[in-house]
Predict the structure.
Amino acid sequence: MSVLVTGATGFLGQRLVRLLREDGVQVRCLVRPSSDLQSLRQSVGEVLWNGVDVVSTELMDSDRCRDAMMGCSIVYHVAAGLSGSTSTLFLSSVVPTRGLLRAASEAGVQRFVLVSSLGVYGTQAMQSGSILDERSPVDPHPHLRDPYTYSKLMQERAAWEVQQETGLPLVIVRPGVIIGPGRGVLSARVGLQLGPLMVRMGGTQHLPYIYVDNCAAAVRQAGLAEGVDGEVFNAIDDDLPTAKELLRMCRRAGHRVKSVWIPRPLIQPMAATYDWYHRWSRGQLPGVLTPYRTASIWKPLKYTNQKAKSQLGWQPSISFDEAFHRSLPSHGADA
Amino acid sequence: MPDTPSRIRVALLGCGQIADAHLQEIRKIDFAELVAVCDVHQDLADQAAARFEVPHAFTDMQRMLSATSPDVVHVTTPAHTHCSLATQLLESGVHVYVEKPFTVDVPEAERVLLVVKKTGKSLCLGHDQLFDPIWLRCRKLVDDGVIGEVSHVESVLGYPLSGQFGRQVTGDPNHWVRQLPGGLFQNTISHPLYRITEFLTDIQPRVDAHWYASGNATFPTEMVAHLRGKTVTGSLFFSTRIQHQRISRVYGPRGGLEVDHDGQTIRFIRQSTLPGAFGKLEIPWRHWREGARNLRQNLWRFLKSDIHYFAGMRTLFELYYRSILDGTPPPIAYEEMLRVTRLMDVMFRHCRVRTGAKRLAALSSASPRMADWKANCMAEVEEEESVS
């Protein structure tokens, strides 16, 4: 069996390629002309590298992408812009996704797996303490979210639109915050990093994290499992800590985080004040903190990965405790 | 007397990164109404419309024009499309604001300006940093004679390629920026150049320019240019090897002014008036006082919420829209647009010729055909050098 992976040189992509190769699957990697293959090759290993073939092209070049997809039964679309302005993220995520899906349909691909984000849910409208699962609605006002989440929401919308047009079997995986060696364990779900200082937001919220190897396994299964076309799967680890517990784990591991704490009742008034100032000053400070965004990101919710476990036959094989230690800066660069 | 319209309907073409700045600043102008955005990618047009509350998003320019009837259209597309889009828009009967650089070369610029003349519509070019508060303050100090008659202007632009746009340009050999005659510089060098030409007003100053690729880059990334006018000289330094910075220094017989456009500060450059070692105390003392003055001024501006990265852009938009409503000439003179474009052409040609000259000198003249070709090329190089 042959599959195609976009974003193969990325943090998640290279683990996915390795897992697929370990299963004996032939992998075609779609990489940008400027991509450095060394780290991918190292991750896959020389023995398994024999079953990897690399196609160098821009994702916007639909013809080249379609040619590359010929003979592949599954496309794993992992490539995505992670930072930058909204338009940049749209150009690197949303626009190429439409072209890739159409190309996959023309190339006779049997399943298209899109790696999205757990951030797409409309959590601002959910009750604190409620369970977030695949039935929860996605955000109805994507443009009010941060540029990355906005681009992922629109990328999903674009994918469903092309799926409707073409009938291409589509599966979407929504991973939580992906942690792993070199990425650290602190994220915006804990608080805002202001220079050397972390502004901790609340602390009782569970962190929807997933270790990169666990995530790669879930994505792989989304391509291989039978009878899941048209389904969406949340991918998060078991035994998720709260933000407070994570910081305690950091301290115990000898990593002191310089931080100030914003108690939960103050988060929304603070965001409302900041947002008011942003508007009053006509943007003298950037509009990054709004009541809508704060309600979306720091609300205490319960997360479940039951659907992925039962329908994909997936298990997070690396425990959160182990994932935490592997992700600490002091751990080897690529443990 | 007929009623003149008091509001202006604005549309925007090309919803990339710089479009965000345009839309954000247009929204701050109370007599401007954003009516539509347009991009070849519907997704891009839609995101701009959603975020900046623009009522209509299009993928077709003519449809946008006929459906929304804007008075002025901002062109924020890649540089190589400016000429064609600007002429189409002018011929469709709308005024046009073009983001820098104006066009790819002088023939294109002349073509656009011919259409401006033919249609009677006006055009403004995005030389917005001339209207930035700190540059206006520098201009006032110069006009007040603080440094005397300007003799030299130095303009520095630090443009590390690790930035968002730089990464895109580096990573994609087919990126549109790399296809421009002036490559990376063509898209960015207008800003530091027009800060020089603000004071160096000769129509055709002598130009000496050089570029080269730094490190592993496969295209020119560093550039130095000297401009020699009758009374004012200028030097432009563009580097991807230094941190992002926009610094201008304006010199006259009584000293100089150093303008940090990002820090929004001005520092005086003057010799010490005290003898010997005392001078080493006077200069830092002056720096300290200037630091305190800059801090005080910026603090006051902060309290007034008057520190905005694209403040110059908003001022230029306002002036341009007013000029449309009043029927007066646009704030950037057409001659200046052409002059800056011509200077860029000369600089890039000079750079290419110099690079070519080195390669030519290293070529063998083994065959008669090769020798002829080399001689012709060398003659072209010499002619170019004698002109500039």
Notes: Chain B is about 45% helix and 20% strand.
